[in-house]
Every structure is written in C-alpha cells, then in structure tokens.
Write a structure and sequence with these properties.
mainly alpha; 2 strands; globular
C-alpha cells in the first residue's frame, strides 16, 4: 500500500466541486423552465409535479470548473471534459426535443472516441481473467472501449428511475474507486475522483428524499445520467488500465454491479420478446423494489449498500489472491441468478419483500409512535 503524495489539499477538489454544483443548482432553478430543463409528469414517471432537471448541467459545471482550476489538468482530463460537455448538451436537447436513439448513440460513440484518441484512455487488457497471464486486447481495444462506454452511459440512464438512486449508486462506485486508487498509490485518480464525488454529493443534496423532505427538488435528466455513465467509465478505465498503479480489471465489474447487471438482463429479455433494447417497461430493479414496498430512499440506500459490500468483498478477495477467473465466474453467476429471479416478477417482488426488514422496523416504530 502506497500513500506517497497524499496531503490535506486533495480534499479541496471535493469541497469545491460540491459547492460549485450546489451553487449552480440554485442559480438554475429560476431559469430551468425557460431553458427547457424541466421534467413533466407522464404515465411512465412516478413524480406528480413539474420538476427542474438541472442536475446534469450543474454537475458538469462543478466538475469542469474544479478540474480546470483546483486540480491539475492533463490531456486525459481535457478529453473527459470535452466528451462530458458533448453528452450533457445532447442530453439537454434530448430532454427538450426527445432525440432519436441513433443520434444519442452516435454522440456517445463520439465521446468514447474522444477519450480514446484525445486522452489516451482505453481498455487495453483484461488482466489474468482467463487464468493464463495478462490478456491484451490488441485490435479489439477500441471497439471494446466504445462498447463499455456506451453501455455504461445507457445503463445509468436506465437505472435513473427513483429519486436519489442513480446519484447514490455512482457515489458508492466513486468511493470505491477512491479507495482502490489510494491503495494502489494513484494520487491523480484519487484527486479527480474526489472532484466527482463532490459534484454528485452537491446534486444529491437536492435530489435525495430525506425524512424532512418528501420529494426531490431536482432531477439530473438525461444529461445527468449520461454524464454519470461517462464518469464511471472514465474512472474505472483510469483505475484498471494504469501500468504505474495496477489494479485488476475484474474489480471494475464489481464497482457498479447494479446498473450493469440490471441493464444486461433487461436487454436480453427485451430482445427475446422481440422488442427494442431501448423500449420502456417497469421491470427494472427499482420498479420491483417499489412493488415490494420499498420507499425511494430505501431503494437507493439498499442498492448502494449492496454495491459497497460487493466491491469491498471482491477487493478483499483480491488481497487474499483468490484466482481472478473465480471472481469473474462469480460475476457471471450473479448475472444468471438475477436473470432467473426476475424471470417471474412475483417471485422477485416476494424476494425483496422478504428483504425489507429494515423498513418494516421503521414502519412498525412509526405506527407505535402514532
């Protein structure tokens, strides 16, 4: 474990990004409707009020200003900023005009290419995932990087269906990236990841449901979910594709298991039913948990705790030198189990209803107080 180069100054990026994001949220509230940054209730959405969808723009502002001023800039960081601006602008236009899916995917591919050729950030190897030493990708590096980036962006878009869920999941992922980067001595990534932690936290102050606030005051919109998907892709690539501070790529699979597994299972299920992978339904994990009685806050906290536990357990297994093919197999087993569990919706709802012990205690306590 190497901690050389860490000092108190690296927290300034987190605080600056959080403050700038919150400041941008407050500035955008009065003009959100004029800019088209609002989310209207529909039959596909759970909220009942017109709500500002300013989170994506505000988080972008917090991240870009902090990365360009407080944290030293590099070509990789500049490429990330350019790609992020592209995605947020496209997401804003999509929120306003409902763009065609192929146009959104085209911009996402372009953003991935900017990371690859503008910043030198790509997936170049898979580590000893096959048990026979490192597995270089060679000519497959670019298409796999594009596929992973576009996949993460769309996975975050799909999971953004409950107040506080997407932001809290990304916060959990980023905290594990910070821990893994610190453990490997990757000071630069720790500083940049803390900037993104700050931006997400600044947004969640307006998006999460607290006991004293019954609903979210703002959403992230498609611009925000696209930005957070890029954030996960960029930080995980920088974490696992770094020769100076090596971290196994297998760990990346376990840093954001909920949106990725949920997305993969639903895409397979939709294709088997002859539907578009981008078609809407109510079969996501947060929909199932809602039917099982989970509150929005309970859903966000429960899935984020699972994310943290999964990442920490796999990280500890790597410290114990468990074979990486075994950890990869565990991921595939988790994928298969979720597919089987959700094959019958009633069974999945019953599973989560049984797991809702914490909120049942709170409900009982509230009834007793009444």
């Amino acid at each position: 474990m190497r901690f050389d180069g860490f000092d108190g100054a690296w927290w300034w990026g987190l605080l600056a990004a959080a403050g700038l994001t919150a400041f941008a949220m407050l500035l955008l509230f009065p003009v959100a409707a004029r800019l088209g940054l609002v989310d209207h209730p529909t039959d596909r959405k759970n909220h009942a009020w017109v709500t500002p969808a300013t989170g994506g723009v505000a988080m972008l502002f917090g991240i870009v200003v902090t990365m360009m001023t407080v944290v030293e800039s590099t070509s990789a960081a500049t490429a990330f900023v350019v790609a992020a601006v592209m995605l947020v602008v496209t997401g804003w236009l999509d929120d306003r005009y409902d763009l065609r899916w192929w146009l959104r995917i085209g911009v996402q591919v372009a953003a991935a290419l900017i990371l690859i050729y503008g910043g030198g950030v790509r997936i170049e190897h898979l580590g000893p995932v096959l048990g026979i030493g490192d597995t270089p990708l060679g000519a497959l590096s670019v298409p796999i990087t594009i596929f992973a980036t576009v996949g993460l962006i769309n996975a975050m878009n799909m999971i953004d269906g409950v107040d506080g869920l997407a932001g809290t999941l990304v916060l959990a992922t980023l905290l594990m990236v910070v821990a893994a980067a610190a453990y490997s001595g990757n000071v630069v990534l720790v500083k940049r990841s803390l900037v993104m932690v700050g931006a997400v936290a600044g947004f969640l102050a307006f998006n999460f449901r607290f006991p004293w606030r019954a609903r979210a005051h703002a959403f992230m919109g498609n611009s925000g979910s696209a930005l957070l998907g890029l954030v996960i892709a960029w930080t995980c690539f920088r974490l696992t594709q770094n020769e100076g501070h090596p971290v196994s790529p297998v760990l990346a699979l376990w840093l954001a298991p909920v949106p990725v597994i949920d997305c993969l299972v639903l895409i397979v299920r939709r294709k088997r039913a002859g539907r578009s992978p981008f078609s809407a339904d109510h079969d996501h994990v947060h929909h199932i948990m809602r039917d099982a009685g989970f509150s929005p806050a309970g859903t966000a906290i429960g899935l984020s705790v699972f994310t943290l536990l999964a990442g920490l357990v796999i990280g500890q297994c790597m410290r114990w030198n468990l074979p990486e093919p075994l950890l990869m197999a565990a991921y595939l087993v988790a994928l298969a189990l979720w597919f089987l569990l959700t094959a019958k919706r009633a069974r999945a709802v019953a599973f989560f209803r049984a797991a809702r012990f914490w909120e049942r205690r709170q409900d009982a306590a509230a009834r007793n107080d009444a």
